[in-house]
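can u do me a favor
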């Protein structure tokens, strides 16, 4: 027989786990880098960019287009890493739910 209380309890547990996962992802950080670390971008597991660091010599020695390209590369590197921690977190959560 269908037990609506069990379904509601399972949905409540899933929502609580999702909230906890979002908090955990917000606390995890990755650092994307380009040009051997001359450009770095810190990002959390919610894909929020934190700190961006650019070595001053990079700006002094290169044109703006090159510097912008290096920033883009560092952001993309950070996104790739953040996606990895999100996937790991999802595996953990789905494992707890028995999927």
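np, heres the sequence
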């Amino acid at each position: 027989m269908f037990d609506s209380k069990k379904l509601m309890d399972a949905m409540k547990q899933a929502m609580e786990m999702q909230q906890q996962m979002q908090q955990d992802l917000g606390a995890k950080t990755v650092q994307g880098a380009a040009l051997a670390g001359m450009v770095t971008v810190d990002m959390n597991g919610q894909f929020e960019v934190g700190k961006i660091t650019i070595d001053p010599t990079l700006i002094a020695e290169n044109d703006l287009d090159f510097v912008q390209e290096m920033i883009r590369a560092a952001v993309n590197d950070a996104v790739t890493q953040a996606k990895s921690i999100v996937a790991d977190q999802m595996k953990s959560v789905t494992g707890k739910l028995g999927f």
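Residues 32 and 76 are 7 Å apart (CA to CA). hope that helps!!
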